[in-house]
Amino acid sequence: MDGAGEAARLTVHGLEVLGTALIPVLNDMVLDRYGDYVVIVDADQDQVPVFTALGQWVGMAENPDAIATLIDIHERVNGGDA
Known about the structure:
Low-confidence stretches: none
Helix content: 10-25%
Shape: elongated
Strand content: 25-35%
Structural class: alpha+beta
Oligomer: single chain
Radius of gyration: 22 Å
């Protein structure tokens, strides 16, 4: 430190990888985008959670075919703004 009350400074001269970790892979789960909406399709589930791109909960579609209907209802109720 240069003086009392000043922030400490850290200088990095090098990085070394000591080991690697396994990265989990979501084989059966897919995030998909429908314009201003995001859905999570899970191969093990019929129902599909639907959110706005900003993270607001929209609802649960009973199956992938019902996603568009749920989004349409949400836009009519909320004035079309996701």
